[in-house]
Amino acid sequence: MTVAHALTMSLGIEWDESLPYTDPRNSEIAMERSPDRYRFILERPFVTEPGTVWKYKGGATALLAHLISKGTETPLIDFARVNLFDPLGINDFEWVSGMNREPSAASGLRLRPRDLAKIGQLMLNRGRWGEQQIVPAEWIDASTEPRLPVDDEIEYGYQWWLGKGRDGQPWVGGFGNGGQRVIIMSSREMVVTVMAGSYNSSDARKLIVSIIGEFLLPALHEN
After folding, report:
1. Burial of 39 (0-12, 13-18, 19+ CB in 10 A)
2. Residue 179 carries which DSSP code?
């Protein structure tokens, strides 16, 4: 397994988050309840060749967060605050911790809609905020390049969902459980944030297709 496999959710290990997050058999819940979440991830048996099949795994994001913290010798929250939140003026957030008292990188971050939109605007600006280049533009390009198919409509980059609206224009998205969304449409110079409460719904991921296709684009055409 490589870092790229974690970035693209293609670690190839056995993982199932289709069960409700109240079910202890859900892999993310089992991970958080285990004595060592990283050992739990790395001890999962392989079911596919790494890098070949996309499957959503909160464990992949947890591994990435741990690598960042270990590599920088900085707690994840402090690293995020100094390198992302403070430059964007995000000072009111919550990051829920797991049983090991480390931030739950796969699902624990809570942001206000306006602050989530700032991250979307940062993506739209290819990593630039005002006069400061916060994230290298080359990394923004690499992370939003399609790497693996999710289904017939959506692809996946480096931790970003990628698709097209009904007019064929591409979008980049960050998806959260329940329908929380940040959507970047560079062709329209537009960032959209959505807050919703459809938790544990298998249809929540399709919400963005309806939002863009049925509401946003027709409204733009009218104006």
Report:
1. exposed
2. S
Return the pLDDT at 195. Answer: 85
Cβ–Cβ under 8 Å, residues 179 and 198: yes
Higher per-residue confidence, 147 vs 201? 147
**Mean residue pLDDT across the chain:** 90
Name the more confident of 67 and 176. 67
Which DSSP helix (H) or strand (E) runs through 185? strand 181-185
Full-model pTM: 0.90
Among 59, 213, 56, CA closest to 150: 56
Give me 72's structure tokens: 């920088």
The number of beta carbons lying within 10 Å of the beta carbon of residue 119 is: 20
Going by DSSP bridges, is the β-strand pair 128-129/155-156 parallel, antiparallel, or unpaired? unpaired
